TrEMBL record:
It comes from the Bacteria. InterPro entries: DUF6786. This is DUF6786 family protein. The lineage of its organism: Bacteria, Pseudomonadati, Bacteroidota, Chitinophagia, Chitinophagales.
């Protein structure tokens, strides 16, 4: 992956569950407690750590090689991933989707449309018919290799889309912990003094394991990575984009109804999106203007999160809207989601998500699509965070604070 920044470029319990040590709710409150909880309920838990380094990354093959959480300060450090403790503890599977949580999960797109992977052939796009495929929801991925700072998984399966085409594919996923030097190399600058950090890279590969080439007219899958993080009333997602006269028209902000002005601020090259877990909303950025990264600033916990990935401006990106589409390969490269109560008052989270997708390609038998993403978390005092935010986005923390204080 090329250095990410040049000049100003960014330039992103159920009943019967035994309480575990932690906060007053009985749920874990730091990385070590999260790890103990997950080891209690899962069979395949791997914690990546390097000698002499306080960073930690927890992965499980039980949930498709998912990164569940991480820490920049060992077992007692803040645990960055949102985890659905009740669902994990239940040991049961839910209808439609098993939202176990985790700060980076491997999915495949598109979700909706005539080539949807989440709707059976011939069925309308309704919630009753929506089903997350087992390959990315309930399958157990097997460990292929493991070292103290890296673990690789593999899985082989098939998946049918809404058009009736069945993809036979192999999946490989490697999670690699990065030390401070390699983290700085990915950023393209030296990390400011006074910041603790944890960073990891995932390498995701899908291979056409069938005997025929994938074709646009029968649908193409893409790699879709989704991160679920803990919200606060002092957290904002930061997503930069290429400026231009038509840039605003390439940002979709009405997936679940128009996002109110209070929750979304769009300037000429960066947007701020409230991530408080109190108002459901989703936005997307088209590949023509998306920059290769997004992130968030959490003023309550003095932390910054950065996600780095590749964007192909001329690539084919699948469209996941729940409708037959005139342009099924004109979808988003980047998505951001803020959770909130549904009309009936229920809520899955609260959490917020930052998501990225690969382009989709017509692979021949034996050909592969490879997609990498780096996730970084930084913690420290406000002056050090300000130095980082300035290098990342030329963004004053006070401007984020002012945005979040809007009524």
């Amino acid at each position: 992956m090329k250095p990410f920044f040049m000049a100003c470029l960014l330039t992103a319990g159920i009943a019967g569950c035994q309480p575990s040590p932690g906060d007053s709710s009985g749920k874990p409150s730091n990385f070590g407690e999260d790890a103990a909880f997950l080891r209690q309920h899962l069979k395949n838990v791997v914690v990546l750590q390097l000698p002499g380094d306080s960073s930690r990354v927890l992965v499980t093959g039980d949930y498709q090689a998912r990164v569940m959480t991480s820490s920049a300060n060992g077992d007692t450090g803040n645990s960055f991933g949102w985890i659905n403790y009740d669902l994990v503890a239940s040991g049961k599977l839910a209808p439609h989707i098993n939202a176990f949580g985790g700060e980076e999960r491997f999915w495949l797109g598109p979700e909706g449309g005539q080539y949807a992977l989440f709707f059976p052939p011939g069925k309308p796009y309704t919630f009753d018919n929506w089903q997350t495929p087992g390959l990315i929801d309930t399958a157990h991925y097997e460990v292929r290799s493991e070292t103290p700072g890296e673990v690789s998984y593999a899985y082989a399966g098939s998946i049918q889309n809404h058009a009736g085409y069945t993809f036979h594919l192999g999946v490989e996923r490697t999670i690699r912990l990065l030390d401070r030097q390699h983290t700085g190399e990915r950023l393209g600058f030296i990390i400011p003094d006074g910041l603790r950090s944890v960073a990891y890279e995932t390498e995701n590969v899908i291979t056409n394991a069938g005997d025929s080439a994938w074709q646009e007219q029968s649908g193409l899958p893409s790699i879709w990575l989704l991160g679920m993080f803990k919200p606060s009333d002092q957290t904002a997602v930061i997503a930069p984009f290429q400026p231009g006269a038509d840039a605003r028209g390439q940002i979709t902000d009405d997936y679940f109804g128009k996002i109110p002005v209070r929750n979304l601020q769009v300037s000429d090259s960066v947007l701020l999106f409230r991530a408080d877990g109190n108002a459901r909303g989703k936005l997307g950025i088209a590949p023509g203007i998306a920059k290769p990264g997004a992130g968030s600033i959490d003023l309550a916990n003095n932390s910054i999160t950065v996600l780095l990935y590749t964007v192909e401006p001329e690539g084919k990106y699948v469209n996941s809207k729940w409708e037959d589409q005139a342009e099924p390969y004109k979808g988003d490269a980047v998505n951001c989601y803020n959770d909130g109560p549904l009309e009936d008052g229920t809520q899955m989270g609260p959490f917020y998500e930052v998501e990225s997708s690969s382009d989709a390609r017509a692979l021949k038998p034996g050909e592969s699509l490879r997609y990498r993403q780096v996730t970084m978390h930084f913690e420290g005092e406000p002056p050090a965070l300000q130095a980082l935010a300035s290098q990342l986005w030329q963004l004053p923390l006070d401007s984020v604070r002012q945005f979040l204080q809007q009524k």
